[in-house]
What we know:
Strand content of chain A: 5-15%
Largest interface: A-B, 124 and 124 residues
CATH class of chain A: Alpha Beta
CATH architecture of chain A: 3-Layer(aba) Sandwich
Number of strands of chain A: 5
Shape of chain A: globular
CATH topology of chain A: NADH Oxidase
Structural class of chain A: alpha+beta
Distance between the termini of chain A: 30 Å
Oligomer: homodimer
Radius of gyration of chain A: 20 Å
Mean pLDDT of chain A: 92
Largest sheet of chain A: 4 strands, antiparallel
Number of domains of chain A: 1
Amino acid sequence: MEFSQFRELRSEDDRQAANEPHFDAAFRHKLEELLYWRRDVRHFSSSSLPQGVVDDTLTLACDTAPSVGNSQPWRFIKVSDAKARNAIVCNFQACNEDALRSQSSERRQLYASLKLEGLQQAPEQLAVFCDEGTIQGHGLGQSTMPETRRYSVVMAIHTLWLLLRGQGIGMGWVSILDPARLKRDLDVPKAWSFVGYLCMGYPLHTSRVAELQETGWQARQEPSATIMHRRS
Amino acid sequence: MEFSQFRELRSEDDRQAANEPHFDAAFRHKLEELLYWRRDVRHFSSSSLPQGVVDDTLTLACDTAPSVGNSQPWRFIKVSDAKARNAIVCNFQACNEDALRSQSSERRQLYASLKLEGLQQAPEQLAVFCDEGTIQGHGLGQSTMPETRRYSVVMAIHTLWLLLRGQGIGMGWVSILDPARLKRDLDVPKAWSFVGYLCMGYPLHTSRVAELQETGWQARQEPSATIMHRRS
């Protein structure tokens, strides 16, 4: 069943009473398309983005992303100077050489052929952290699972990703990095955990299909394989 | 600036060449509203959801959520029998008593007054895990930051959240749980990490403002406080 054809599940009366917006089938269809076309982008045009667009989009993401206990623990550092960017490139290269060596011999050649980041082309770059020491939220919801602070940061990143894609801007998330080295290179507070490094810019290539699928690295698995039922 | 008023950033020619959909201002405005109205829901109607709606939505979320190296490490267990649900309620109650005691004396009364979950009302419930041992994706992108597998699961949860909200269904994420106890109670494989417990159903109350803000627990901070610039 197509998501856009799902039934209207809340009655018109309920919606109007709450003064809430109506998300109709046309919107839901477009949202589905946005999710499919989001994709991790590694091939960027070097054209710069319009002034302010990253800040404005980031502001909206921060204002709407879920966070545990309303803690909003995300911290974004815009990385724009050449020295800092070069440190990230060196960090990636060292980690990627290790990663290449750890691949099985039959996959090594394919791995080496993959372009896994756009660090040298993407006009806008963000290093994203979680402030583990924030008092915002007074610790609510975090005592047994402090990792939910980092999960909140991840949802802010995902929100940013979708909002950027809605404007025709691509984003790629680089995780082949040594977090300790990155924290030293960018000189961030000790209490911050590194969550992800984001490259942003106009994509040279857009697709509804993930690049790792297109290049034959890994087929998508059937969603049904991941959904189980617990009966006692 | 309103997100819906952002410029069209990709030219019509580029879009048509890639055969990609156009996300116009009206769609972007609705998307912004969806993000604001998503909210963590703790007050559920006990009315059941239409047959299949959670499965269908989950399938779409699994098919579109980003995952590191295309690893799709999310594992969803639908928790529906009374014994398993009761174990989750007991787990929550024990953890929440500890959490209440750890709050400062001046916040304890307010904490105690908050309704932090809908475990006893929500008609549909999912326990969500990350399979740390999956070979899907061949380890790509995960060697220095294995936590990106869990971050992928978080983005699948966030995708589900938005898709449900688009259909008028509310979701609440419960994190005041002991992960080890939950894993024992639900008898899940050792290699799975617990990521979150989700309650789903029709909301009794909807709002554009977070419940923790409405109840005076914690005001939202200014997004600008979390965005910094690194210049050397």
